[in-house]
Amino acid sequence: MQYQDVLGLDHIKKHLQSTVQNGRIAHAQLLVGPTGSGVLPLAVAYARNILCGIDNDSCHAQLNNLAHPDLHFSFPMPSTIGSSSTKATSDVFLQEFRAFLLNNPYGSLPDWYKAIDIEKKNAEIRVAEAQLIMKKLSLKSYEGGYKVVVIWGADKMNTEAANKLLKLIEEPPKQTIILLVAESEDRIINTIKSRCQIIHVPKLNAAVIAQGLQKNLHLSESQSSTVARQADGDYRKAVQFSQNSAEDLQFEQWFVQWVRTAFVAKTKMTAINELMEWANTIAAVNRETQIRFLNYCIEFFRQAMLKNYKADSAVYLSPQSGFDLTKFAPFVDGNRMLEVQKQLQEAIYHIERNANGKIVMTDLSIGMTRILHSK
Hints:
- By secondary structure, this protein is of the alpha/beta class.
- The protein contains 17 helices and 5 strands.
- The protein folds into 2 domains: 3-200, P-loop containing nucleotide triphosphate hydrolases (Rossmann fold); 246-373, Up-down Bundle (Zinc Finger, Delta Prime, domain 3), CATH 1.20.272.
- Helices cover 54% and strands 7% of the residues.
- A 5-stranded parallel sheet has the order 2-3-4-1-5, sandwiched between helices.
- Strand 3, helix 7 (159-170) and strand 4 form a beta-alpha-beta unit.
- The protein is globular.
- The protein starts with 9 loop residues before the first helix and ends with a helix.
- The relative contact order is 0.10.
């Protein structure tokens, strides 16, 4: 994985390359950006640049398989392996992770959890993983140069593990580079952030995504352009759209059921029971899926609002279930959108912090009913 494999982000690539060329590599860096922007492949390309330079053919050959002895990976894992009491660390799934990253460099953490069948488990970076990182970085470099660790999902690091790594991040061994990769800067403790050089990786523009789709998926120019607009700066989402993701169809069905039930709740006494059943259905899936669904709802409401305000050029959503966005749009004006977004973001906040899913979804469904019926 090299810089040319990473879509767009030319200004950040130039900055990272210059730090290597000038010998001014910060020992601890935090790369923050949405998964679909390419923040993980960017970190891996940077690690390759640090370890191999330009002309080291044998080093590049190793990095082609992500198997360089001085490149280490860390990522969220469940607390134990399977049904045993053995503490899980990234080394257990390192081979699977390399294959996942090579085949799906823009994949998200939920994609990774699905790949190794831990979707229903609470995955974090815990103390056992922090101890493993410290052990690896305390050893001498195998090749005699830099050692690099890429910590993917650094915002999934629990407080105990973060405190364990604090001293290492502040004063790592000589020629040791720590690259933390995260989607949310807010979920990383301040003592870690203050010791890192922070690089914000933006969403990709539609033209860059369209070019990527044409090159990698061989879509036509018109088709790639349409999909790129839908993706909202997220290449992973663009790939999913181009492949007609089954998950999005499920999300649409859940959303339509929810909205239709909420609309009739004022006149249909049994609607409250249907809303409770809906809440139980959503609460039954894993937390990552719940969060993705709630973000999908925010975007669906946003598209309806744009339709309401005649901003048709920005409307890409085309429901597959027969739901008429044109008829729904008049119910989503700016004021309602603010309330809707507030309710959904609060629900995401509580789900992320392990609140009871049934309670969160029930409260959300009732609150949304009130908003849709407000004048």
